[in-house]
Amino acid sequence: MISNAERTLAQMGLELPPDWTPRGQFLPFRRDGTTVYLSGQICEWGGEVTHGGPVLDTPDGIKTARDAARICALNLLYRLREACDGNLDRVDVILRLGGFVNCASGFGQSPAVINGATELFVKLFGENGWHARTAVGVCGLPGNAMVEIDAIVRLKR
């Protein structure tokens, strides 16, 4: 069954990634009632990092990092679909995103980078895509990825 959310993604010219093996020993998500805690997802596609860090502090560098954040969001949606028993239409609201940007000391554009994920969730879920958020610069991420994002989501009852 294709959800309305996946149809909307297709209309946006986007698709969910193919399955991949996590890089560490952890669960991709944990459900507690209607709350889903999604483990951090890096910007990888089919198990390969798409954007290596650190992000460059230039307009093109920020755009590239925003694209990386969007890929992280697609990976989160893939795992969220698993948590929703295959139906993303069960998503009620995106509660929180935690964003991590692989960057040099002094980089001040982490919020602009994580906007790449925020904008995707808002386009996909409307008002229910808005969320609380952090955007933190770090000196390294798994696979030297440029961006990693985790999330907390509430499902419909």
Tell me what the structure shows.
By secondary structure, this protein is an alpha+beta fold. The chain has a single domain (30-155), classed as RutC-like (60s Ribosomal Protein L30, Chain: A, 2-Layer Sandwich), CATH 3.30.1330. The protein has 3 helices and 7 strands, in the order αββββαβαββ. It has helices at residues 4-11, 59-83, 110-125, and strands at 29-32, 35-42, 44-45, 48-49, 91-102, 132-138, 147-155.
Write down the CATH class.
Answer: Alpha Beta
Shape descriptor reads: globular
The CATH topology comes to 60s Ribosomal Protein L30, Chain: A
> Could you say how many structural domains there are in total?
1
- Give the H and E element order: HEEEEHEHEE
Low-confidence stretches are: none
N-to-C CA distance: 19 Å
CA-atom Rg in angstroms: 15 Å
> CATH homologous superfamily - what is it?
RutC-like
Could you estimate the helical fraction of the residues in percent? 25-40%
> Beta fraction of the residues?
25-35%
Indicate the mean pLDDT: 96
- Major sheet, described briefly? 5 strands, mixed
